[in-house]
Design a protein that fits this description.
Layout (H helix, E strand, L loop, with lengths): L1 H4 L3 H6 L2 H19 L5 H13 L2 H4 L24 E4 L12 E6 L6 E3 L12 E3 L4 E4 L13 E3 L4 E4 L13 E3 L4 E4 L13 E3 L4 E4 L13 E3 L5 E2 L3 H7 L5 E8 L6 E2 L4 E2 L2 H4 L46 E10 L7 E10 L4 E3 L3 E3 L7 E5 L6 E2 L10 E5 L15 E2 L5 E2 L11 H4 L4 H10 L19 H10 L9
Helix pairs in contact: 9-10
Length: 487
């Protein structure tokens, strides 16, 4: 700096060198202090993500408009934001004066929008209360990263999807309230480390299924509310008192061929969606293409399956053998209303279906019908119910025709004698007839998207990432064919 290099001998004679150094340090300290923000940039980014993903900008809560800025201003103080408490976390050895966000309490503030993944990066949060708002979307998987969280209250919102698998590992949590939302699926499995938890409220969601054996440690808690408004296999009291409804792990070995995506001469499916980087969560090899959103693709109508499979997937989670996602379900009978289990899996070039999560039932019911659905194909159901061998269900759809009636189809037999699901069923939204019938709606879907390339699309009937005249020819050949799986 000039203040050091350009001082002359007269200055040196009038000010001893040590005094000059002191002045320099004082000057630099003033400059640094004036430019230093009191808000950690990472925490600022996380809180700003919440601001931008909701309507907080429209609510005019005191102090929150400061988050219009990309970076924190020099005089930033999180305590000036309504509902925020910042300070030193209860961690031994944490430097005094290094304030971090400890609490977010914005209950009943008419907040709408969704919860961003970045909020899970607030590592020192001890309380998060966003209850009695209109927040929608899913609970981010990053919420399981809250290392010292004591209170998590997201009740009375419009949250959907499943409860994150790592929720039981929030070791400092003593109050969990997710009641009065639209959460679905079963409770997370795994051994909980919630030694401090004494209040759980999950009432009035769409939760179902069995209870993991490890959850018995919650049976003596003062407040456990899980039954009302849900559809578990048994009541919480029956689980705690009699051991009923305990999850039993089982395996599914299922094989299916997809007509047109399967090449008879090579005896395998094409893997163009993987090769082009178009499977959900992958990075397309064409940088101008919009990536397919993460997560299994059956979370919308008509399937409305809210499983979390694939939500954290990227390129590394797929194999070069992977073709696409399918939805597998189990039934005690042939009709849809006897369904007792669903899970999304990935079908590979050989037709084998692998599952990315462990499969559970509250008890092994034997035998069961196996159903496989794909977004572009007619669904198929095993021609007979399948019995367990040990804890495993095994069925090869390619070995015989699937369930059918004299007037309805099962599969198509290929030139090599194997059986495959019928292609051309891209428009499945609507009633059960749409899901089980290849008709004009499927042609309309193709017409709308004809000419698009590098697209993960319901109109791509041979799964080659290109929607063209060949897909129309597939539809024309199968037009009018129908099954009886979703009746």
């Amino acid at each position: 700096m000039n203040i050091i290099t350009n001082y002359n001998s007269s200055v040196k004679n009038n000010y001893p060198f040590s005094k000059l150094c002191l002045l320099i340090l004082l000057f630099c300290s003033i400059i640094i202090n004036k430019s230093k923000a009191n808000c950690d940039i990472d925490e600022w980014t996380s809180l700003r993500a919440l601001y931008l993903s909701t309507n907080l900008a429209d609510l005019n809560l005191p102090g929150w408009n400061i988050l219009e800025n990309t970076n924190p201003p020099a005089n930033c103080d999180f305590n000036n934001l309504y509902g925020i408490v910042a300070g030193t976390p209860p961690i031994q050895g944490f430097p005094e004066g290094d304030d971090v966000i400890l609490e977010i309490d914005l209950n009943n503030e008419s907040i709408s929008g969704s919860l961003p993944e970045e909020i899970g990066n607030l590592s020192f949060l001890t309380k998060l209360n966003l209850s009695h708002n209109q927040i929608s979307g899913s609970i981010p998987l990053t919420f399981v990263s809250f290392s010292i969280l004591n209170v998590l209250d997201l009740s009375h919102n419009q949250l959907s999807g499943g409860i994150p698998l790592g929720i039981w590992n929030l070791g400092f949590l003593f109050e969990l309230d997710l009641s009065f939302n639209q959460l679905s699926g079963s409770l997370p499995t795994g051994i909980p480390t919630l030694s401090n938890l004494n209040q759980i409220s999950l009432n009035n969601n769409n939760l179902n299924g069995c209870f993991d054996q490890s959850l018995t440690q919650f049976c003596n808690f003062t407040v456990v509310e899980v039954d009302a408004g849900n559809n578990f296999d048994v009541t919480w009291e029956d689980f705690c008192t009699n051991g009923a409804g305990v999850c039993m792990e089982f395996d599914l070995n299922v094989k299916l061929l997809l007509e047109e995506a399967y090449v008879v001469e090579e005896d395998q499916h094409i893997n163009d969606l993987w090769f082009r980087g178009l499977l959900p969560g992958m990075a397309p090899i064409n940088s101008t293409v919009t990536p397919t959103p993460k997560g299994q693709p059956y979370n919308t109508a008509p399937w409305n399956y809210k499983g979390e499979e694939g939500l954290s997937f990227s390129d590394n989670n797929y194999s070069y053998l992977d073709v696409d996602w399918v939805l597998v379900s189990l039934r005690t009978g042939t009709t849809k209303n006897t369904e007792i289990f669903r899970a999304a899996g990935i079908i590979d070039v050989n037709g084998d279906i692998r599952f990315t999560t462990t499969n559970y039932l509250s008890n092994i019911i034997d035998p069961l019908y196996i159903v496989v659905e794909h977004r572009n194909y007619l669904p198929v159901m095993s021609h007979t119910p399948v019995s367990f061998v040990g804890n495993t269900l095994t069925y090869d759809f390619s070995a015989q025709d699937s369930f059918r009636t004299p007037s309805k189809y099962g599969q198509i037999q290929l030139s090599n004698g194997k059986w495959a699901a019928l292609a051309g069923n891209g428009d499945q939204a609507g009633n059960s007839n749409e899901r089980d019938d290849i008709n004009g709606g499927d042609k309309a879907k193709w017409t709308l998207l004809n000419g698009f390339h590098d697209l993960y699309s319901d109109a791509d009937y041979n799964l080659d990432a290109d929607i063209n005249g060949y897909d129309k020819a597939i539809w024309r050949r199968n037009n009018g064919k129908a099954c009886i799986v979703n009746q």
